[in-house]
Design a protein that fits this description.
Largest sheet: none
Shape: globular
Distance between the termini: 15 Å
Helix content: 55-70%
Structural class: mainly alpha
Radius of gyration: 19 Å
Order of helices and strands: HHHHHH
Number of domains: 1
Strand content: under 5%
């Protein structure tokens, strides 16, 4: 199943042709960052699913750095972050806020989540108050949901890969 997608993943050259990633290219010369094995793919999916919940500008970079530290498959770690996009991010973050509020407070009321507009009088004070009120539950919810997604993704890759291997051996 996963082997047939291997040729569709971006190559090292394609990933590191970006001006943002080019400075890191020399770190990723080792074959373990491009190896296609069950454990590396499962770990890479987990990394991508966890990092996909992080704030939007940090997702790819976080996945790249975790893939480097854990010496795992770079393209899959990057690709797995893409479940969050402009359509899915808001519902995921609302769910993360709700989960974080529930964990921190229990059954919390649903206050208005409108961020103060930049440039209005008292913006920085209002932004700090907004972050203090909503930031902790949101950050906690993001970490919990990202961890849950990572665990489920890792387990599913392991299960599906083993199931497919057994089917191939039986055939």
């Amino acid at each position: 199943m996963f082997e047939k997608w291997q040729h569709k993943l971006p190559t090292r050259e394609k990933i590191f042709s970006s001006r943002w990633f080019k400075p890191f290219a020399h770190w990723f010369n080792k074959p373990e960052y491009w190896a296609f094995s069950r454990d590396k793919v499962a770990l890479s999916v987990a990394i991508g699913l966890f990092c996909g919940m992080l704030p939007a500008p940090t997702q790819f970079f976080s996945a790249l750095m975790l893939a480097y530290v854990l010496r795992t498959q770079v393209p899959i770690a990057l690709f797995s972050t893409l479940y969050t996009n402009p359509v899915t991010l808001i519902p995921l973050y609302v769910a993360a806020y709700e989960l974080g509020s529930w964990v921190l407070i229990g059954d919390a009321p649903h206050p208005e989540l409108i961020m103060p507009a930049f440039g209005e009088p008292g913006f920085w004070g209002n932004a700090a108050a907004w972050a203090a009120r909503f930031g902790k539950p949101l950050a906690l919810g993001i970490l919990i949901m990202g961890s849950i997604f990572a665990i489920i993704g890792y387990a599913l890759v392991q299960i599906i890969w083993r199931w497919r291997s057994r089917r191939k051996q039986a055939a």
